[in-house]
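Session log. Operator J.P. requested a structure for one protein chain; no other inputs attached. Running the standard single-chain path with token output.
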Amino acid sequence: MGTSRKDNIVEIEGDCFYEQNPPFNFGGLDPEYSNFWDSWAVIVLVPYDSTTTYQPGTRNGPSQIILASQQLEHYDEEIGIEICEKGICTLSPVNPNVSSPEKMVKKVQNVFGYLRQCNKLPVLVGGEHLVSVGAIRAFAEDIDLKVVHFDAHADLRRSYQGSEYSNACVMRLVSDNCDFITVGVRSISWGEHKYIKENNIRCVYARDVIENREKALEDILEFAQGKVYITIDLDVLDPSIMPAVGTPEPGGLGWYDLTYLLKHLCGRCEIVGFDVVELLPLPGNIAPDFLAAKLIYKMLAYSGYYLDKKINL
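Structure written below.
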């Protein structure tokens, strides 16, 4: 993989990425805590939504999340640490390839492959869910990877609107490379339902989490062992707290439902990377942007704390 190192530039397969400084980096971190080579985690912004199936606009999600993140408190009151002290670098956005969704997925795969070589924790911020496929493939190509997929939708169509590389086909593409479990689903097609049953796809429905989240966690942890990648479509959350998505579905998870599951996943598994995708910013409503930013920081806090402590809950 073609790469080179300069003071504040990372070149990957001919694309140059720059370290972002305040106010254009996640959390508004000073260079001491946001330079690439000393940072533990790297934020990868992917403003892409060319295959969005209903309402476009998630391409604006990354910039609004970065803006909202400037207002986050760096101290996490639950974990009791300032995870930013481990270093969180934000790279300049991945330049979208609008000519081909498949090429866009490959571009993301190259970036994540390089970050993996550098022993970073890569964090993808979308943008639409399709780009998560590239991130997952960067790990699944040579390790036994488990994926935990949080989503209101199954995303298991073989093709949609004439393309296999569609927002509606994300987990079908992932299934070609690794095993996964889907959590929070409450809207599927008949074809997806048949595919789930015929292929014994692991699925924890939203109602399962809401009715008994401890049992839901047991089911998730039975599957999610070893190296785990977590992909979070924000529509897994209930529209009452996350209306800023392209296809909102009633009956979703609450904040504490989701963070309960994520905390225990990070405590029990080796998290190799994660993403938060599908924010569709709403003019005049910044609350969803702030939620998305805080969710990313919360995931960083969980991942970093349990990585350092090497303890189980």
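Operator note: The chain has a mean pLDDT of 93.
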